[in-house]
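Exam revision sheet. Question 4 asks you to relate a sequence to its structure. Input first:
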Amino acid sequence: MALLKLVYYSKHPALHKIASPVKHFDAALGQFIKDMYETMYHENGVGLAAPQVGISKRIATIDVSEERNKPFVIINPEIIEQTGEELMEAGCLSVPGTYDKVPRSTYIKVRAQDEKGEFFEIEGEGLLSHCLQHEIDHLNGKLYIDYLSPLKKRSWLRKMEKFLRNEKNEKNEM
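Answer key, structure tokens:
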């Protein structure tokens, strides 16, 4: 397995466009999914969408378990049902150092394919519901900060740039 390089908001076109459907379910896809899991865990994320590593494909890995041992992948997902709404705290590996509340459905049902191309449905509430919506947003070219007001969005983007500069400086000092 290999760690994949994260891309950041406004720096990569894959984050801003609708990702292409996956059509080939082969060994290369399986390896890419393993690399996504490794990257997601390495970055302490609960989800990772392919556009976040610069690949414009409809693939996302998720693991919201406390033990971090129940990963699954959603490929070509589509929301088939959602109800309720609440503001939920959101953060994103592609917008590091920023967090804010965004509206999310309290319940969601998604139809997707697994790594072999088999269709399945998954239902979620709470963190799982939020994570499914967040990752599907990525596949649709949308990030959580796109839900914020323009003023708040500019503020978070400045914080993210500062976070990235500080992180780069820390790595250079090592």
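Marking note for examiners. The first strand starts at residue 47 and ends at 49.
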